Amino acid sequence: AVRAIIRDMLGVDLRAAGDTVHRAVDDALTRGIIAADLQAHLYDLLDASQPDHLRADYDALDNQHRQKGRGLAVAQILQWMSERTPRLLFVEDVHWATPSLLEILGQVGQAIRECPIVLIISSRIDNDPLDRSWRASVVGTSFTTIDLNPLRVDEAQAVCRMVTDDPATIERLVSRADGNPLFLEQLLRHSRESEASDVPGSIRSLVQASIDQLSPADKTAIQAASVIGQRVDPDLVCHLIDDTGFDFDSLVERNMLRFESQSYLFAHALIRDVVYGSLLTPTRIALHRRAAVWFEESELGLSAEHLALVGSPEAHSAFLAAARHEIGRYHFDSALALIERGLQLAEDPTDRVALCLLAGDTWLDIGRVEDAEVQYSHALHNAGTPEDRSHALIGIAGVRRIVEETDSALEVLEQASEFAVEAGLLAEQSRIHFLRGNLLFPRGDFEACHQEHEEGLRLARQAGRQDLETASLGGLGDAEYVRGRMVSARARLEECVRLASEQDLGRIEVANHAQLAHTLLYTSTQEEALEVAGSAIEHAARIGHARAEINARAAVIKALFVLARYEACLEEIDRYEIIIEQLGVARFRQIAFTFGGGAMHALGRSSEAIAWLERGLEFARATGHGLHGPSIASALAVIVDDPERKRGLIELALSQCAAGCVGHNQFRVYADGIDVAFDLPDKAMLVDFIEAAESYPSGERVPWNVFHAARGRALLEDMEHGDTATTRAFREEARGQGKALAMHHWLGRAAPT
After folding, report:
1. What is the pTM of this model?
2. Longest dimension (CA), the chain
């Protein structure tokens, strides 16, 4: 329905494809009918392939954002069109509508509040989907419900008088119709076209009588049309009857069909049902098979349905292929409906397993984890090969990872690994190691996490699967990051982002793009980190990747703090906190405490800063110190005045680092520790922090720590000898490094001023 409306609005033939559709989209953009940021959704609505420059971002969108975007695109087109000409939209039979269509209709209902548009929706009372929740989605839009009851006697008589004035005929027809408008219409037509005085006893017999009066050519055509469905493509009818010049006018004149938008519709669904029911079995089978072949290139779902209607043994595999095609177009509702049809037909366990696995993958993609596990479990129960068992178990493990049942997920992966190794399934083994690495990450088992991703990468390359290689590189980047190996993490993540971009793996690209910005904080200039983080935010917002956006915003907060742009840092923290509250990921608030407190202190709001960081300490105790707990403690140690409190807080930070935490904490703790040691003053402590900065992480020289070690040596020289030439040389060396990295927050601490 939506596709037909949009094509009609834009003047695009229902059968048009390729360049014709692309030109229509370009025209809509040029004329301002639709905004550029909704362009990809318009291609989707028109069933057109995405251009190269849009494909990666559209691939990266989750189902929720795609659905929202489609609705916004429809609403925007309708608003533009109605500003020029008032519009009447009629959507029939929404009791058959998919959830996605109902959602779009709700968005249209909201959009037309201030537009000269009338939207008429028809639905049966039984299974009416326009329930209370749907109506709530269009609150504020004028909404009128009209229940169509049977015709009253006087109304039926008035209809009859349009055809006959004979009182006896009117009385007989009104009595027989019993208020049914369609029955009355057919009775009137029969009385006008037939000289017989008898009245058929049912509406079906009335329709059959009308069919019997058709010419042989018209009867053949209407029978072929009945195989197609309620909406009839004239080219397909001509193909089915082998008559490219068939004239439909007679069928229209006899009220069998009506012309609408380059196609025909049966005047009533019952007419189609009666015609279809009259087909002899051999004729019906032959017509459906020819229709299935017709749709093989354009509508795989319809091709499968025609095969199913004649009991073809290929039907279930056709539904499987059609579902995969719909998934490739992100039409998940349609795909799941096709899978369900396939399951209704498939009897062989192998066929059912393939359908269940695809259903599980689809439910998992759209976030319906309970439904996904049901389908994976069905597949596992019936699986007869190691490949299918491994696939099902990997799916179940993926579900349990999402619901944070980590131990169970790891147990399931062990089972999956046995089958994958037994069958030599390299790609499945790579997936298992990647998933296991992701499960070990939040448990703090970083060495094992790193090993799993290394093995996943090796197997992905051995299997020749660049998509799995890309995912494993991202996992390795994370594993290196949590160990503090920022140079290695940056290299892995840069390679991951490059490969993801080349393969149009948009969600992988943006997630790792955001994480890459964090590595740049320690290995490059703060300006570059800020620029990359800003780009990642735009990318994440564009495709609706909220977790990537949060991560990129965290990098922005850190960079702004180090750049000494404290007001901007606090403003960004305000935006950040709104998003994390919306997503319910409270533990990420630790970042706001760490850098918000430092920014407040730098702006002279010391009391507020101390109170804020004290709250941060309590928050880290409640949510776990692993993310930023040590950094909160060290940030507070820098700004409190009491020496014993300073010492206690920096020792707390060190103990938390030793207990296990994300490796970015050590960079901040050692930097803060240098300041705390100088302020106390404590020469031995200062030496310890300089050595810690110089040696962390093992085997890598990270520019952040190289600068802070140089800064520490300048402070140590000042502590021991005062403002000597040597001290000034150390100071200038540190400041030179700090300026090159834009470490403005610490430049004033290269030595006392």
Report:
1. 0.77
2. 124
- Collapse the DSSP code of 348 into the 3-class scheme (helix H, G, I; strand E, B; otherwise coil) and give the result: coil
Give pLDDT tens digits for 573-613.
Answer: 999 999 988 888 888 999 999 999 999 999 999 999 999 99
pLDDT of residue 753: 44
- What type of residue sits at position 190? H
User: Token pair of 29, please?
Assistant: 């953009």
Q: Which fold has domain 315-501+508-531?
A: 1.25.40
How far is residue 596's CA from residue 427's CA, in Å, rounded to a whole number?
A: 44
DSSP symbol at 88: E
Encoded tokens for 457:
């990468």
User: Tell me, what amino acid is at 496?
Assistant: C
Question: Nearest CA to 271 among 288, 290, 251, 242?
Answer: 251
Tokens of 638: 């820098």
Question: In terms of Cα–Cα distance, which of 620, 622, 562 is closest to 591?
Answer: 620
pLDDT, averaged across the chain: 90
d(CA 380, CA 18): 41
How confident is the chain (753 residues) per 10-residue block, as mean pLDDT? 77 76 87 89 84 81 80 86 83 75 78 80 74 72 75 91 87 83 78 58 74 91 93 92 92 88 81 88 94 90 94 93 89 91 93 96 89 96 95 96 89 97 96 94 85 97 96 96 96 97 89 96 98 95 86 97 98 94 86 97 97 97 93 98 98 96 96 98 98 97 98 96 94 95 87 47
For the chain, the structural domain boundaries read 2-136, 153-280, 315-501+508-531
How many Å apart are CA 409 and CA 415, to the nearest integer? 10
DSSP string for residues in 356-414: HHHHHHHHHHTT-HHHHHHHHHHHHHH--SHHHHHHHHHHHHHHHHHTT-HHHHHHHHH
Task: Kindly report the number of other CB atoms within 10 A of residue 46's CB atom.
Answer: 21
**What Å distances lie between residue 715 and 204, 358, 443, 646, 650, CA to CA?**
99, 63, 38, 18, 18
C-alpha–C-alpha distance, residues 107 and 129, integer Å: 15
Torsion over CA: 269, 271, 273, 279 (sign): negative
From the list 256, 252, 275, the residue with the least C-alpha distance to 186 is: 256
Name the one residue in this structure whose structure tokens are 């690994």: 417
Extract the tokens encoding 243. Answer: 């008559």
Place of tokens 């992100």: 330
**Residue 527 corresponds to which tokens in the numbers above?**
């300006």
Contacts of 313 (CB under 8 A, 6+ apart): none
Give me the residues paired with residue 119 across strands.
89
CA of residue 704 relative to chain centroid, distance: 37
Residue whose entry in the numeric block shows the structure tokens 């058959």: 96
Cα–Cα distance for residue pair 105/80, rounded to 1 Å: 17
